[in-house]
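Re: Re: token formats

Sure, here are both.
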Amino acid sequence: MGYSSCVVRNLSLLMGCAWVSSVAFAQECNNLPSVSLQAVSSEEVSNDMVLLTWRFEVEKPESGQAMQAVNESLSQALARLKTNQEVRHLITNVRTFPVYHSKNRDISHWRGQGTLSFEMALEQLKKRANIEADAAPLVLSGLNYFVSDESKEQGRAKLFGLAIQEFQNKAKLAAKGFGHSGYQLAQLSVNDETNHFDPQPYFQQQDNMRMSAVNSYAEKSVPVSGGVSEIRVSVQGSVCLTQ
């Protein structure tokens, strides 16, 4: 979920606010009657980005050997992926831990695990772009779809205007319904959020993983159904009813 806000003292500054968790200002109603209102505008936007996580596992007699093997595999994948201009935000992680004998607590050997994650546009993933070959010998362990910042900002801008218009319409109706000629803003809060609705998660089995299972898993094709996210903007506050 994404969230945004800024604080202003004047309504004329509202449209220039960055998307941060609430936008607010205040004005006293004095002895005038007030009404609390809320307006919500939302739409579903197709997820156009994907975060891919890849994994490599190896077992060696010594911890240092396991660490070296993992680092070598990560380095191979990194060298190829860095040449792909569609790949961004490359992150790696390496760890080793002991594996114990079943009959005693003596260390049998060491297991090394390495992960690599990066983002790319969903359209590029659909074209494959040799991405599985570039990440080898790592295998895919997870996908997470999301909306790009550009698409999110476009949706927010449109929904912001719609929510503001709905709030103003409600304020006018409230004033008219209660026999008043107009209204003045007393307090206003603007909030936005993004809720993700991903397709069926695609995760690798991690418990008791063996290299044979890893190799067969690597042969599976990458799903490219990105699902949707809901962008939601709400405007809530109170107005003073004027004569």
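Second one below.
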Amino acid sequence: MKRLLLSLTTLCLFSSLGAELYVPNRYVELGVEASAGASNNLYGASDILTETITIDLKKIAGSLGRNGFVIDAFADTNAFFNLNLGTKFRLGLFANVSGSAFVGVGKEFFEVLADGWDFGETKEFSATAYGDLFVNVGASFHTTIKEKYGITIIPTYVMPVAYADDASAKVDFFTDESGPMKASAEASFALHTAFDLEDFSYDDIMTTKISDLVTKGGFDLGFSVERPTIKSLDVGVYGRIPIIPGRLNYKTTRTMTATFTEDNLIQRITDGEDFDYEYDEGDTEYSKSTKYVFRPLRLGLEAAWHPFGNWCVFRPKVGLAVRHPYSKKAIFYPEYALDANITLFKVLGFQFGTAYEDRIFVQRAGIMLNARIFQIDVKALFRSEDFINSFRFAGAGAYVGLRVGF
């Protein structure tokens, strides 16, 4: 993977230096934007909004990918100020809050429900989850070198609020042809936080809690390098490199267990009697434990092609991302996007696009109204971990942005 990252970086630097991929509409502007969404990879809107809901276990098991049944969610808010004094000097300041969550139930669970299992055979199912919440503040600076190379640098101070990558669940089943059945389940989670949740109080959140957050932040560096190649095509390389990790000094854990044993399962079902089981919800434990946290690493190529003029722009993007970088739990995955932007008289705009970002397929459509002193953007998002289900409304989201200035 190191060679792959090095090769991609070298290719980016030597083949796609660029400028003016994104042209600002105002000299000075203030803005806020927010987006949120959630999805699953199994049920589309047409599967749920029907008079009769049909559950075909064999079909479900066959349609799931290696991640099994996935539920994801995200939310992002951003406030910014931009000063655009030509291509030589552009300065931006921003602050944002972003969070995400991902839960996956193993495909084996649905395969057993569909096909059953043999007597004397032990079956194991698993589930995993992760999530994060960050507060970020930073700046961006853009300039042009030699009249054609556009360079943007984005240093960001990253303050993790909460982080979970150790949540898991495991279930074991065993049956015997004479009737006995045994089952056990265990679920555990570890939540790393900037604050001690054991004595958490909203009364002092603006004093000691904020201090805990601000003093434990990390640093990453975003960048883009762009240049025009031909009259209608601008290309560039972009990246976000985590450099210094943020720290979370508090840990909250809990382990829950359940066991079920039945000597004569068939007789119990025949008699209609209740099943006996034991359940232990466990104790919540609080401790001090340092967790070093990075935001995902990203490297990629992007372009802006305007074959008919600036009113019609196609924006392809392809890259590589790494969640939990620099760790044994690192997850490598590709990312891509292809958007078409159509702007009429620089006032009314439309956007249509498809993307694979943060391991989720996204289809999006939006509208933009630019009245010079203010601009509003609205987008509808359709999402899913499964490509086909992203078109079947298995998940949805929205984006709203507002800019004011001159």
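Helices lie at 2-15, 45-48, 57-63, 107-115, 205-214, 265-271. Residues 2-15 form the longest helix (14 residues).
- S.
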